[in-house]
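ingest -> validate -> predict -> emit
validate: passed (alphabet ok, no gaps, 421 aa)
predict: started
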Amino acid sequence: MPLLTIGINHTTAPIQVRERVAISKQNLCLALKKLITVPQVDEAAIISTCNRTELYCEVTEVDEGKQAILGWLNSFHNLSSSDTEPYLYDHLNDSVVRHIFRVACGLDSMVLGEPQILGQLKSAYQDATQAGTLGRNLNQLFQRAFNVAKKVRTNTAIGTNPVSVASAAVSLSKQIFGELNNLSALLIGAGQTIELAAEHLSSAGIGNITIANRSIERAQKIAARINGRGVNLSFVNEVLPESEIVISATASTLPILGKGLVERALKQRKHKPIFMVDLAVPRDIEPEVANLSDIYLYTVDDLQNVIEHNLQSRKEAANQAEEIIDFEVGNFSSWQRSQGVAHTVRAFREKAELHRDDVLKKAHKMLTQGKTTDEVLHYLAHTLTNKLTHEPTEALNIAGKEGKNELIQAARILLNIPTDE
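emit:
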């Protein structure tokens, strides 16, 4: 039966629309169980993140299934079709397969090659498994998607080079210090960039992270997520001498760190080096700080050059990934086609086994009646051969009378009969 995906993502809808269509983790099981009750839906899985909500379904009929699923989506969120349809996209069969493979590999993400989406896809698979809405086809589709993502990350450089300013800053700090485990970091500001930098530094192993901001509540909120500490911006002069890594991204119109403050911090540190990243525009760190010995200062422009180089590398890797995906889409299509004939093969074997059991029962009866072994074996071979060949022979005779040569040729292939010279 057809595979159908209906979705909305960061390329088709603004966040105000995506928020209205999103399905929370708490409601996901309920949503799946309601979706599977749609008459045209036989299997279902849902992935819902901040950047996308997608419904993966096996349907009995495409057009009716699509309309029914759209109706269910709008009803679930108390929305009208005009609220959603301008922003939706859909995929069918091979296009579904290609799409989920690209999603799993990070090729359809806001940040090319980002790995988080694979974990979100695995979570969606687990949710659907627990809800009991997966069948053979979607189960196989998700398993193949995970394998393709693994193959792409193993055989290409799709995820090796950082392409966000936060991840690039952490990558540069590794180049300067090597291992980061025993280092301390000071992050100035509390916006999204600082949040991302904090997450990247925490993932890199830094356990001592301080967030400094004018609003201490906001600083403490971010710090709590990474087991750090939040302080008021006025404490920067106290924290700076303890820090090997400093990343600043505020909306201040005046510099936060001046040359004199940094000089005093270096003196207290006995001139142990500090890696500084100024991601603010206007700048948070006075440009003259770059002239101090033992200071490695990078601006947002410096990082942008690194990002552009890395993004080009990811684009080249993405081309390699698309080739892998093309091959794997073909493999999945072959698997699906083989499933289409599985029922016929099973029915054919069951019919043959019924003939076997019937003839074998009569053969046993002949033995009990005193027939010789040769007589019974001859009966067994002759009768079983006749039963197995009777219907195909009749069908071939009819095909010959009606001039259905293509059917006769197909039978020769199926039965492995040499073509007449």
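The chain has three domains: 3-155, 165-307, 345-414.
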